[in-house]
Amino acid sequence: MKSWVPIAVIAGIILLFAIWIGGAYNSLVVDRVGVQTAQAQVETQLQRRFDLIPNLEASVKGAQIQEQKVFKDIAQARTHYAGTAPQSADRVQAANQYESAIGRLLVVVESYPQLQSNQAIQDLMTQLEGTENRISVARQRYNETDQLYMQHLQTFPGNIIAGMFHFLPLPLFQSTPGAETAPKVNFNQ
């Protein structure tokens, strides 16, 4: 019986050591998966930005073009009316064009008490702000998750297990050069 005691103690120590290594390894795996998940969230928000902004910009441009056409038609009809002789057929035609343009303007104003492009621009700005906030939050969460992972990589016993199983550090999100300059949205293209 006494010959089995040292073997049982050694087996117990080896078992505890294996459990310790397994726990540390699993902890690093969980941390790394958390960082990868956080990075996927950042990518999702960036994709939202890339999908959303061009569509919103096109919508705003479309609303502006429609409204500009109505006002242009009114100005042309007024100019045509003023440039024709009184009591002429051209003057009647110009007056009819003017009334038609005013009618379209009234429809736009009745449907949209404020001009639609103003609201579209406000909506665009709200969407841009919301998108940038979502990206910022996702990046912050990524960095927080990565910080925890990096702490486990660099502290004992994680540093030993990380070296044994080749866990590598993952980069933090940082500002890109030129990020201090606000992006410009140009509707005149």
Topology:
Elements: H1 4-82, H2 89-111, H3 116-154, H4 158-165
Name the descriptors.
189 residues
Shape: rod-shaped
- The unreliable regions are none
What structural class do helix, strand and pairing data support? Answer: mainly alpha
Q: Which percent range describes the beta-strand content?
A: under 5%
Distance between the termini: 91 Å
Number of H/I helices: 4
What does this structure look like?
This protein is mainly alpha-helical. The protein has four helices and no strands. Helix 1 (4-82) packs antiparallel against helix 2 (89-111), helix 1 (4-82) runs antiparallel to helix 3 and helix 1 crosses helix 4 (158-165). The N and C termini lie far apart (91 Å).
Brief summary of the model shown:
This protein has helices spanning 4-82, 89-111, 116-154, 158-165.
